[in-house]
Amino acid sequence: MKLKFSFLIATVFGLLLFVNTNKLQAQNIIDKSADELKLFNATQAVNTGDYVKAINLYKEVLANRPKDAAIIFHIGNCYYSMKEFDKAKIQFESSKEINDKAAGDLRLLLGRCYQLNGKLDDALIEFAAAKKNNATNVSKLKEIDYYFTQCQTAKSLMANPKPITITNAGATINSNLDDKRPTLTADMKTIVFTSRREEGKNANQDTEGDGGNFEDIYTSEWDSTKNNWGEAYLVRGAANSQGHDAACSISPDGKQMFLYLNNLEDARGGDIYVSKISSSGKWGTPKNIGAGINTTYFEDGAVLSPDGNILYFMSERGQDLLWKGQKGYGRCDIWMAKKKDKSTWDEPTNLGPVVNTEYDEGGIFPAADGKTLYFCSNGHNSMGGYDIFMTRMVNDVWSKPVNLGFPINTIKNERMFIPSSDGKIAYVDSDRENGLGERDIWIMDMSAALPKPHVGPYISILTGSIFNGDGIAVAAELVIFEANGNQVGKVNSNDNGIYQIQLEGDKSYEVRIDNPGYKSIKESVKLDVDKVGGTFELVKHFILYKE
Description:
five-stranded antiparallel sheet, Immunoglobulin-like
């Protein structure tokens, strides 16, 4: 009897265990299905740009799967898309710690977070790993190399800062939002700029765009008694509309302004307009500059040469098909048109592949000498994002653009550079650290960087970094030879791979790089000279491979 009773208890217990196990399995299936639905909805949210909703959904799933590196990556990717790079970095690092191959772009995006936070050595390590993970993906390798080179350039330029003092233009000019595109009269007493601050003319937001405020054009006058800019205000008159309005440039005498407008009537791709100021100080209704300059593509950034006979502007024409027999070289190029008469222009011409890259160029400003052109680019040897470059017209040919260096440029974005005629002061817009808003206008005191009277041969600088095939800095010896074989210099790179040597300019040299355990390499370099703006500097990076 006791045996039967024990058997009965065991049977009942087994049945209960079976039922509970089935319930648990069923609940797991339900939970898994709910998670899959949340993941689907999170993906949909990402596709529509609702990253906050996506993050919340991913976190709900992560509560059930705390070690799912892919979900952690997706959370980081949302923060990355929201430009919250510190939060993205934390998620990417957590994902990498669990599985460093959780997603194809994990190491690339982690490297970008390090790059944007100024941790360039860490970024180079991640980019090197990303290259290995994408060894057969040609387009991805090109993207990685693009950022890799930016970090190398940034390290070199930041190691040799220019003697420039930079201050924020202050709260009378800058707001807590986006303030950009400064343009000044020749006497530097009036500034015109573009802002997305809330007290603008437009009551509505750009709901079809990024949801932010529409852009408006503001101005301010210099207060010489307070040595500061007065409170900025909307330009008077009809220059601002109910849509996006942005200032391209103001004429040296302050009487004419080029604008960028984007509306549904006659500027669907974004066109260049011109407005003139009346004797009462009010700007007239902007007029389209005409079909000779504007196309169905995007046009912006119009500015006149100092003599008023050349119009420089940026355009996306010719990027897909030839435009009147001319091709573009990137997504957005710099073009120029010569004045035909008082109100018309000759057919525009592209500045060519020396200035324009396969990426974007803009932020154009012709200097007072009529030969120097400043512009921004995220091509060439950029430190990261957009940098300011300089080119000169020599014998009707544009010279190779030169990066203006650090701290004019940073690892963030600098898009507009407006120097005074004497070169002592310059204005730049940038989203660099310690600003008041998203993008601010900054003032640069460049008097200490002005060139001294020249005596003797022009000296140029050869600088850069040396890395191995994995992107790790290498200490090596560089030996410099003239064309006739005479050795004229020798320098060692430091532990960070950075080297610098001064050589006579306007000459060609052969550089030999040696390091035990690596293959020696030889490369030719041509050092130009800068007879106007200071010392010419060539940034040249080298990669050594093991024997």
